[in-house]
Design a protein that fits this description.
Elements lengths: L23 E5 L9 E5 L11 H22 L3 E5 L15 E6 L28
Antiparallel strand pairs: 1-2, 2-4, 3-4
Amino acid sequence: MDFDPNCVFCQKTETDYITENTLAASFLDLYPVSKGHTLIVPKRHVRQIWSLTEDERHAIFELVEKNKAILDQKYHPDGYNIAINSGAAAGQSVFHCHVHLIPRYWNEEPRRKPVPGQFLVPPERPQFKGMD
């Protein structure tokens, strides 16, 4: 299935996009971990990264680089997290493959600062309510 009418990412349109190419698109996360938190997705409805074609993987990571350049110019972050949650046990809550590009800043609130080797999200994100 190339499109899932019940998928929030499949419902995105060109007006939502920051960047796009023929196989992928990017847009801002609705529950950002930090200022500029961007999602990069395949345009085709694919649940997991493991099901992407090689061309889709290349298209997605082309947009990771393009969005990094945009975020560097607009926000001047001090670093980045690039994360892919694959499966519910890994924290995936929208089952349309997506890459998180998360700008990080030294002046972030302490509870949001990353810990080496760990992908942290703020507790106000809906899927993490009640876990703090």
